[in-house]
Amino acid sequence: MAMTGPMAKGEIVYRIYRALTYGLSPLLHLHLHWRKLRGLEHPIRWRERLGRPSLRRPSSGPLLWFHAVSLGEGMAAIPVIKFCSQWRPDVHILMTTTTVSAFEVLKDRLPANVIYQFAPIDTPAAMDAFLGYWKPNWIVIMESELWPNLIIGASKCGISLALLNARLSAKSFRHWSRPVLFPLMCLLLPKFSLIAPLSSVQAIHFQLLQAPPFSIKFSGDLKYVVDEYEQKDTRHIEYLQKQLSQKQVWMAASIHRGEEEIILGVHNVLVQTHPDIVTIIVPRHPQHGQEIAEELQKGGQNVALRSQHKELIPGTSIYLVDTLVQVGK
Fold first, then answer.
1. Side-chain-facing half-sphere of 189: CA atoms under 13 Å
2. Hey, which of 5, 49, 51, 162 would disulfide with 194, CB 3.0 to 4.6 Å?
3. Is 73 known to be catalytic?
């Protein structure tokens, strides 16, 4: 049966997208090399991002693929992964993320039998190679990783798709609602057998983008059940809270390289009215922490690094979190 209306237009948009991602593949490969040089890709396993596996697929049995973009989404997937592993021990589980920071944390928190790989970029060659090698029976995507080559490729292979903790920011919703991209969403969302949105507002967003109503099921925010599966050492946090209890504090979280200069400028202004203020800086990429600390020290700041468990001695003005942590709301 031929497609008509928005879905037919969506097929045309998808063909254009596939052609563009095919043509841009060499540039995307160079971009991965550049990211590797900057420490944003794994120095050895970065080729997994091109769909080249570093581990063997189990020779027999079904495989369930969980995909999350980064640490927060990956942590939210862990309770589901553990439940699936206990409920169906005969099913092999593959987990992918795109960031090194997620890899460093999740590899020690996932069950031992879970296979971990870096996610392929959404080019035809990388995604087709990945799906062809791993041959997943089901794919669970976390939050909003709506990549066309992944979704259409999986659908053509008869792979069932689910979207958990599904959400679209107001900006993303406006983006996908544009006349050019709306038909593409009309093509992609019906490929999902299950969409579990974070809220009724999110459910409405997905329905407005033509997700079938029967596929939408509420499950709540999975990030709220992560604590049940995590054993946290709170001693360091409690000690830090005690040290900061009598001080003015402000935090700059998830900053990119270079933004420390702006933070330092704000800090210097605040010191004029709050001489004992302590600025907490949390880099988006913790591996840049030492470099940022050196830059701040050149500016005359007394910096304490979390990785070195330094105390906030008198005169310490900046506390730099150069280890992986979850920042609470």
1. 28
2. 162
3. yes
Burial of 39 (0-12, 13-18, 19+ CB in 10 A): middle
Tell me, rounded to whole angstroms, the distance of Cα 327 from its chain centroid. 15
d(CA 257, CA 202): 33
From the candidates 11, 41, 48, 73, give the one annotated as an active-site residue.
73
- pLDDT for res 2: 55
For residue 203, is pLDDT > 50? yes
Name residues whose C-beta falls within 8 Å of residue 318's C-beta, 6 or more positions apart in sequence.
Answer: 267, 278, 279, 280, 281, 296, 301, 302, 303, 304
Average pLDDT of span 157-183: 94
CATH number of this structure's domain 6-224, picked from the four choices 3.40.50.11720, 2.120.10.70, 3.30.450.90, 3.40.50.620: 3.40.50.11720
Q: Using CA of residue 224, residue 228, residue 229, residue 231, what is the dihedral sign? A: positive
DSSP 163-214: EEEE---HHHHHHHTSTTTHHHHHHHGGGEEEEEESSHHHHHHHHHTT--GG
Helices (H) and strands (E) in the chain, counts: 12, 10
Closest CA to 157 of 125, 133, 131: 131
Spatial CA neighbour of 57 closest among 47, 67, 65: 65
Would you state the structure tokens that stand for residue 251, as one six-digit string? Answer: 């935090």
- The predicted pLDDT at position 66 comes to 98
- 35 contact partners, CB below 8 Å, separation of at least 6: 41, 46
Encode pLDDT of 212-231 as tens digits. 999 999 877 776 666 554 54
Q: What is the mean pLDDT of residues 10-33?
A: 96
Name the residue type at position 104.
Answer: E
pLDDT for 329 beyond 50: no
> How do the domains of the chain map onto residue ranges?
6-224, 234-320
